[in-house]
């Protein structure tokens, strides 16, 4: 992302150079800078919007994944919602038809022909966290602010530790992909 800022605004020379490489030379009115930690998402048609994500099957991810959280263990299901936890976008299974909770970094790779966005985890109708989950969460030494009925998704990892992941995007594979 490149932004025009009024002349005289402090701009790092490295950002000016990157903006210049992208074809935004300084003018009499503006200098150009960039933000490295921002993204712009759109539903405007463009070339990358329909790039198909190359994915492995659930079985292949369990066997060959580069992520130790999946290799040999497979996918965890949420304790309070009917979906699987997919901790990395490159671990989205190509053959799973149910709902999946994926990291927000999925949006950078989202292809509307391949996946349907169901909703954000924080706003979905979950059963809420159970009293037992909350007790196990605090007993394991975690300190996040949760209580019985809390709406965030939750699950137990392979060692039985209660986990409340960061916000997830709930998606479903389109059957025609």
Low-confidence segments: none
Report the order of strands and helices.
Answer: EHEHEEEEHEEE
Query: Could you state the oligomeric state of the chains shown?
Result: single chain
Mean pLDDT: 88
Structural class: alpha+beta
What spatial order of strands do you see in the largest sheet?
3-4-5-9-6
Strand proportion, as a percent range, falls in 15-25%
Which SSEs are present, and which pair or pack?
Layout: E1 2-6, H1 13-21, E2 30-34, H2 58-64, E3 76-77, E4 84-85, E5 99-102, E6 115-120, H3 131-139, E7 155-156, E8 162-163, E9 169-173
Parallel strand pairs: 4-5
Antiparallel strand pairs: 1-2, 3-4, 5-9, 6-9, 7-8
Features:
14% helix; 177 residues; 9 strands; two-stranded antiparallel sheet; 2 domains; 5-stranded mixed beta sheet; 3 helices; alpha+beta
């Amino acid at each position: 992302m490149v932004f025009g800022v009024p002349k005289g605004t402090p701009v790092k020379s490295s950002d000016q150079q990157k903006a210049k490489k992208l074809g935004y030379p300084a003018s009499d009115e503006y200098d150009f800078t960039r933000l490295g930690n921002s993204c712009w998402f759109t539903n405007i048609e463009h070339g990358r919007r329909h790039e198909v994500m190359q994915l492995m099957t659930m079985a292949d991810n369990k066997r060959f994944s580069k992520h130790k959280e999946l290799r040999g263990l497979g996918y965890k299901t949420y304790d309070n919602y009917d979906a699987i936890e997919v901790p990395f976008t490159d671990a989205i299974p190509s053959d799973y038809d149910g709902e999946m909770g994926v990291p927000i970094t999925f949006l950078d790779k989202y292809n509307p022909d391949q996946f349907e966005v169901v909703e954000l985890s924080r706003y979905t109708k979950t059963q809420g966290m159970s009293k037992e989950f909350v007790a196990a969460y605090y007993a394991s030494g975690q300190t996040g602010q949760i209580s019985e009925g809390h709406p965030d998704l939750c699950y137990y990892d392979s060692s039985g530790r209660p986990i409340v992941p960061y916000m997830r995007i709930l998606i479903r594979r389109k059957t025609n992909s």
